[in-house]
Design brief:
The protein is α/β, with parallel strands linked by helices. It is built from seven helices and twelve strands. Strands 3-2-6-9-12 form a five-stranded mixed sheet, with no helix packed on it. β2 and β3 form a beta hairpin.
């Protein structure tokens, strides 16, 4: 159960993308085009093997053999989040479960109004131009198959922007939780941080699994720091 048929990993992911794309509605044309470009790039690169320098000491074949399906939406209780012992306190934090924003677990308490800390979905609804320039960029990821998958499949993500000459007083937490289901599911947590010139901030990135099961969390992070910007990123 959960293993692929004789189809190649590239074909499996491509067919999965087609099914997801057919069901997806409401996205801007530029994001749809970026997704299609990303899955095409993944197919062209092929699934990594130990012949690839980055995977020389880690065999990705066990990942390739599983017939992953997009992780279903799931909920996590406040008690389960608290049990992780994260010192979130009054710090602003966004929590995602299986790649989707969990607004009920997130908080903007303590957020400096000069900063932007929002999900991709919220940003696309309120200020899509702020996100477009970053989500359509390909050059940092052109040689990375897993990055291409994240760009193609990510259902949501976090967008953080620190304006020029600004110092964030509180750390910002981005928490990505995996909640495995009955079948092997894949989620693609993604976030973008834009630190403008001479800005300062601390970002905590946390990944954790709630419950038991087989789950692939394929995360993609992009941090763009302007001149003299200082970002402390703790993963």
């Amino acid at each position: 159960r959960g293993r692929m048929s004789e189809a190649s990993p590239e074909r499996h992911w491509s067919e999965s993308f087609g099914a997801v794309a057919a069901a997806r509605t409401g996205e801007p044309a530029w994001l749809e085009a970026a997704r299609k470009s990303a899955i095409a790039r993944f197919v062209a690169l092929g699934f990594p093997t130990r012949r690839d320098e980055a995977w020389k000491y880690t065999n990705p074949a066990p990942i390739a053999r599983i017939g992953w399906t997009p992780a279903a939406a799931a909920s996590v209780s406040r008690a389960a989040l608290d049990a992780l012992g994260l010192p979130l306190g009054e710090d602003p934090h966004l929590v995602f479960v299986n790649g989707r924003l969990a607004a009920e677990l997130s908080s903007h308490a303590g957020l400096d109004p000069a900063l932007t800390v929002a999900s991709y979905g919220q940003t696309l609804a309120n200020d899509p131009a702020a996100l477009e320039a970053h989500l359509v960029r390909t050059e940092p990821f052109d040689d990375r198959a897993f990055a291409a998958l994240a760009r193609a499949f990510a259902s949501d993500g976090a967008f953080v922007r620190i304006p020029r000459d600004h110092a964030a007083e509180r750390p910002i937490w981005l928490v990505f939780l995996s909640a495995p289901g009955a079948a092997p599911g894949a989620s693609h947590p993604r976030f973008t941080v834009i630190a403008e010139a001479s800005s300062r901030a601390m970002i905590f990135e946390v990944h954790a699994t709630i419950g038991a099961g087989v789950h692939l969390s394929n995360s993609l992070t992009e941090i763009r720091a302007g001149q003299n910007a200082q970002i402390d990123h703790v993963k």
